[in-house]
Design brief:
By secondary structure, the protein is of the alpha/beta class. It contains 20 helices and 8 strands. Helix 6 crosses helix 7 and helix 10 crosses helix 11. The termini are far apart.
C-alpha cells in the first residue's frame, strides 16, 4: 500500500526519535477508491507538527509511490475529534465542532486562578440542568475555558451516553443559521438545538451586532432553560461589557452562575508544563519548568506552545531540554515578554487609574487614598515582571522587601472578597499586557 511504502521511506530518512514521535503515531484511512488518503494524528500537537514539518514531504512520497493517474488527495486530521452532535429531524448533521476527549477534568490543571470555575463545571457535569443554568465562564484567551466546557460534555456523556450533547463555536452557529435560512431549513435548524440535553457554546461575544442570530439564539436559550436541559457558555469578558449584545441576552447569560477564569499563577503554570510534558512522554526538569513559567505569564495556550517548540527542537537536535536550550530556542519570545512591562510603566498606569501621582505612590505618606494604589502597583510589579522583592522595594521609594511581600499578600487576599479591587487589578493587568 502507498502509505506503508511512504512510512518505510520516512523511517530511513528520519532519526528513530523523530520518526517514533511524529510519524509512527499516524494512522491511515483510504477513501473514494483509494484516491483519498486520510492521515489521523492522536492529538493536535502531533497534527500541527506533521502539518508544519512533514506533510509536504509526505505528499511528495505519496505522489512518488501512487500508481493512480491523478494525484492522491492527502488529508490530515485528529483521531479523537469524534462528533457529539446528532442528526436533525431532516437527517442533516449540523456542522458542530467535536468534543475533544482529551479535555477532561482529570487533564485540567487546577490552581487558585481557576478553582472556582472547575468546581462549578464539575457540579454542572454531575447535575445537568439542575445546577447553574446557564454556567458562563469568562476571561481572556487561552486560559482553559474551552477545556472546562468540553470536560462538562465529556463527563456528561461518560455518565449518560445517550445524552444529546453539542459543542459549537458561536461563529459556526451563525454560519449554520445563515445556511439554514438560505436552504429553507431554519425550522430543522432550530428544532435540532431545542431538543438537546446539553448545549456548549463558545465565545458568545461573537453574537454581538448580529441581530437575527441573537433573535434565534434567544428562543433556543429559552427552550433550553427548561428543567433537565443545560447550557454552558464562554465569553472573553463579562457579558454586560459586550457592546452590540441585546440586553435580553445579557440578562439571560448571567441568569445562572458567572465565573471568571483568571491567568494562572506561577505554581499553576509550572504544574501545567510538567503535566503537559508527562502527557507528551518526555522529561522536563522542575528547574526548566520554573524557568519557562517565570517568563511566560500570558496564558496557557502560549505556555504550551512554547513548550511544544522547545521539545520539537530538542528532538531534532538530539539534546536534553535545559535552561540554556530554552533560552536559545525561545530567544525571540522571551525577549518580547521581558520588554513588555517596566516598573515605571506600572507605576504610571496605576497612578492614572487611581488619580494620584507617581510621586504620591513613591512617597512615605500612608493615607488611605495612597496605600491602596501603592500596594496594587507593588502587586502588579511582582506578577508582571521578573524583578525580585528587594528590586521592587528599591523602585518604590527604597522600601524593604518585606514591605513589598506584605503588600502583595494583602492585595492577593483582598481580591478574593473585594469585587471592586479584583476588577481594578484585572483591568490594570489587561491594560498593561495588551
Amino acid at each position: 500500500m502507498v502509505w506503508e511504502e511512504c512510512v518505510a521511506r520516512l523511517q530511513d530518512e528520519l532519526s528513530p526519535e523523530v520518526f517514533n514521535t511524529w510519524i509512527r503515531p499516524l494512522r491511515a484511512r483510504y477513501g473514494e477508491g483509494e484516491s483519498h488518503l486520510r492521515l489521523i494524528a492522536p492529538n493536535r500537537y502531533v497534527r500541527e507538527e506533521v502539518q508544519t514539518r512533514y506533510l509536504a514531504r509526505i505528499e511528495e512520497l505519496i505522489d512518488l509511490y501512487s500508481e493512480a493517474a491523478t494525484p492522491m488527495v492527502v488529508e490530515l486530521s485528529e483521531t479523537n475529534r469524534v462528533r457529539a452532535a446528532q442528526p436533525a429531524r431532516s437527517g442533516r448533521l449540523t456542522a458542530t465542532e467535536a468534543l475533544n476527549p482529551g479535555f477532561t477534568f482529570e487533564t485540567f490543571v487546577e490552581g487558585k486562578s481557576n478553582e472556582m470555575a472547575k468546581a462549578a463545571a464539575l457540579q454542572v457535569a454531575n447535575n445537568t440542568g439542575k445546577s447553574y443554568n446557564p454556567l458562563l465562564l469568562y476571561g481572556g484567551t487561552g486560559l482553559g475555558k474551552t477545556h472546562l466546557m468540553q470536560a462538562i460534555g465529556n463527563e456528561a456523556l461518560r455518565q449518560r451516553s445517550r445524552d444529546r450533547v453539542v459543542y459549537i463555536h458561536s461563529q459556526q452557529f451563525v454560519q449554520e443559521m445563515v445556511k439554514a435560512i438560505r436552504e429553507g431549513t431554519i425550522q430543522d435548524f432550530t428544532q435540532h438545538y431545542r431538543t438537546l440535553e446539553i448545549l456548549l457554546i463558545d465565545d458568545v461575544q461573537f453574537f454581538a451586532n448580529k441581530v437575527q442570530s441573537q433573535d434565534q439564539f434567544f428562543h433556543i436559550f429559552n427552550a433550553l432553560s427548561e428543567p433537565g436541559r443545560q447550557m454552558v457558555l464562554t465569553c472573553d469578558r463579562y457579558p454586560r461589557d459586550v457592546e452590540g449584545l441585546e440586553e435580553r441576552l445579557k440578562s439571560r447569560f448571567v441568569w445562572g452562575l458567572t465565573v471568571e477564569v483568571e491567568p494562572p499563577e506561577l505554581e499553576t503554570r509550572v504544574a501545567i508544563l510538567l503535566r503537559k510534558a508527562e502527557a507528551e512522554g518526555f522529561e522536563l526538569d522542575d528547574e526548566v519548568a520554573f524557568f519557562i513559567a517565570e517568563r511566560i505569564r500570558s496564558n496557557v495556550r502560549e505556555l504550551e506552545g512554547a513548550l511544544r517548540l522547545v521539545h520539537a527542537n530538542a528532538v531534532f537536535d538530539g539534546v536534553r531540554i535545559t535552561t540554556e536550550q530554552v533560552s536559545s530556542v525561545l530567544k525571540r519570545i522571551l525577549a518580547i515578554h521581558a520588554r513588555q512591562i517596566t516598573i515605571d510603566e506600572i507605576q504610571r498606569v496605576v497612578a492614572e487609574h487611581y488619580r494620584v501621582t507617581v510621586s504620591d505612590i513613591l512617597s512615605k505618606r500612608r493615607s488611605r487614598t495612597l496605600v491602596r494604589p501603592r500596594h496594587v502597583a507593588m502587586y502588579l510589579t511582582k506578577v508582571l515582571t521578573n524583578h525580585s522583592l528587594p528590586e521592587i522595594g528599591k523602585s518604590f521609594g527604597d522600601r524593604d522587601h518585606t514591605t513589598v511581600l506584605h503588600a502583595c499578600n494583602k492585595i492577593r487576599e483582598a481580591k478574593e472578597s473585594n469585587v471592586e479591587l479584583a476588577e481594578d487589578c484585572r483591568n490594570l493587568e489587561r491594560l498593561l499586557t495588551t
